[in-house]
Amino acid sequence: MAQAETDAEAQAKSGGGSRRWLLIGGAILLLVLINLAALWFFLLRPQPDDAAVAEGDPAAEAESPPAPVPAAYRPLDPPFVVNFDDAQGAARYLQVSVTVAALDEAALEQMQPHLPAVRNELLMLYGSQRAEALRSREAKEALRAQTLVAVQDVLSDRTGEPLVQDVFFTAFVMQ
């Protein structure tokens, strides 16, 4: 009889162990399903605005921001190197690498024959600067704005349109 009770207890313990594994497996399966549902809800389901635009809803199309216009960039190589005097009368040098931005490659190609005039205007502009005036970020931004105006003026005079929308200093060295 003692043997029968021990066998019954062993079966109860082994049955309880498999039930525990079933509960753990079910809990893991439930967590995986919840994660998949959350993934679909936040990342994969169609957005209401996307569906309205796809269906041709004019109100939804009017609210969507315009697509960004691709820009074309071209460096004005070689870098501009000018010398100028500082407040103490010492010779100083400024090296500026400039890159221009236009709406497309065609505008940059139109600018190509006029690069000598553009470079001349920029050399005159940079040569007229004072070293102490170019130390702050605001002064460099002002010089960048003057560079844009100078480039657009030269191109407008020669082609009838400014062609360039922005300029960037990609290197700026003073010695």
Provide a descriptive summary of the structure in words.
By secondary structure, the chain is an alpha+beta fold. It folds into 2 domains: 2-63; 72-174, 2-Layer Sandwich (Tetrahydropterin Synthase, Chain A). The protein contains 6 helices and 4 strands. Strands 1, 2, 3 and 4 form a 4-stranded antiparallel beta sheet that branches. A hairpin with a 5-residue loop joins strand 2 and strand 3. Helix 5 runs antiparallel to helix 6 (137-159). The longest helix has 43 residues, at 2-44. The protein is elongated. The model has no long low-confidence stretch (mean pLDDT 83).
Structural class: alpha+beta
Structural domain tally: 2
If classified by CATH, what would the architecture of the largest domain be?
A: 2-Layer Sandwich
How many separate helices? 6
What would you give as the CATH superfamily of the largest domain? Band 7 domain
In short:
By secondary structure, the chain is of the alpha+beta class.
List the defining traits of the structure above.
2 domains; 4-stranded antiparallel β-sheet; Tetrahydropterin Synthase, Chain A; alpha+beta; 18% strand; 175 residues; 6 helices
List the helices and strands and how they pair.
Layout: H1 2-44, H2 48-54, H3 58-63, E1 72-75, E2 80-85, E3 91-102, H4 105-111, H5 115-127, H6 137-159, E4 166-174
Helix pairs in contact: 5-6
